[in-house]
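Sat 14:20. Reprocessing the chain from the morning session after the first attempt stalled halfway. Input below, unchanged.
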Amino acid sequence: GGELGGEAEFLLQAGVTAMVREALLKVLEARPEEPVAFLADYFEKLVLSGAGGEAGAEPPGLPQRLARALWYVRLAHHSHRPAFSSNVALAYECLSGGGRRRRPGLDGRVYSELLRRVCRPGPAPDEAVSALLQKVQCREHEAVPLDVFRYGVLSCAVLREFAAKAGALYDALGGRGPADKRLCQAVLRALEEALADGDLPLPARYLAAGAKLGPDGLALAMDRALRERKLSAAMSREEFLRKAAALFVAKVKPVD
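Finished this time. C-alpha cells:
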C-alpha cells in the first residue's frame, strides 16, 4: 500500500497525472479515428512546445507557435462546439504570449497568417479564400480580440469543409467525367436556398444546407433540371467549386 501510495504521489507531483488526464480529455473531445496515433501526436507537440520548461524562458518562435496553434484548431471538428471553442482559445493563448522582444497580445499579421494556414492547403478555390480573408482578417498592427479570432478561424474551417463537400457533390453528379450543366445549376440553386436563412449563425446555416442537399433534396433538384429536356453543355469542376464557394463567402458577415 505504501509503495503504491508513493508511486501515485510521485506521478501527482511530477504533473504526469494532470497531463495524462488532459490528454484523455482531448481524445474524448476530438474522438479521432486512430486514438493511439492522436495521443502520440499530442505528446510530441507537447514536448516540442516546451511545456514544462524553465519558468521565464523565451517562448518558441513564430513558426513553432503558428504550427502549434494550427494543431490546436484542428484537434476537434467545428461541429463539436465546446471542444472546438476550447481549442481555439488555446490557439489564441499560444499566439498571444509575450517574450523578451514582443508584448503580449495577438496582432492582425499573425492572425491573418494562421487563417491562411487553416485554409491552405485545401479544396477551396484561391479567389474564395482571398474573399473570405478580406472579410474576417484585421489590419496588420491591430489587436485581435478572442471573439474575432474565434469567428475568423471558424469561418475558414467551415469554408474548407464546405468546398470539400461541394467537390464530392460535383463528383457524384459527373461520375468520371464533366457534369451536366443543368444538374450543376440545379444543385447550386438548392445550395443557395439552403444558405439563405440569415437568422441562423454561420455553422448552423452550413449544417442546414447539408441537410437540404441530402439525397431527397438532391433528387428533387436533379429531377426538375432533367424535366427541361434541353441540350446542355458541361460545367467544369473548377467552375462548380468556384460558384459554390462564392455562395458561402457571400453569407459571411465581415468583421467590424
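The CA atoms of residues 47 and 53 lie 9 Å apart.
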